[in-house]
Amino acid sequence: MTEQRTILIVDDAPANIDLLKGILREHYKIKAATSGEKALQIAAKSPPPDLIVLDVMMPGMDGYAVCQQLQANPATVAIPILFVTGQIDPAETAKGLALGARAYIIKPIDPAQLLTIIAANLLD
């Protein structure tokens, strides 16, 4: 049996983390952070997560700033990042993808879509 991959969920709302955990825990090991700063600490530890599901709108350090720091760090640059947000502005989607995110998932989350996108991004 292969080892379960680890996903880091980053969201300032514990209810959103619980929702994502409910969708993902059957398939993946889950780590969680309620702030961008905490997410960066977790991502930099060994072993790093295999993928990060990152909320865009958070107080303090938003998801874009977290993504920029992850992309700038040689130890975390290879970790796939999926943005999750309630924003449906195409300019915001373009911004997130330009910063290095692999996908932009709009809330409310479709569990099947989320699992498919995660699986596709864990292939490489």
Q: What Rg do the Cα atoms give?
A: 13 Å
Helical content (DSSP H or I, runs of 4+): 40-55%
| Count, helices | 5
- Counted beta strands: 5
Instruction: Give the amount of beta strand, in percent.
Output: 15-25%
* Terminal-residue CA separation: 19 Å
The order of strands across the largest sheet is 2-1-3-4-5
Order of helices and strands: EHEHEHEHEH
Shape: globular
Mean pLDDT: 94
Q: Spans of 5+ residues with little confidence (pLDDT < 50)? A: none
Major sheet attributes: 5 strands, parallel
What would you call the structural class? alpha/beta
Report on the architecture of this protein.
The chain is of the alpha/beta class and 124 residues long. The chain has five helices and five strands, in the order E-H-E-H-E-H-E-H-E-H. A five-stranded parallel sheet has the order 2-1-3-4-5, sandwiched between helices. The longest helix is centred in the first third of the chain and has 11 residues. The protein is globular, with a radius of gyration of 13 Å. The model has no long low-confidence stretch (mean pLDDT 94).
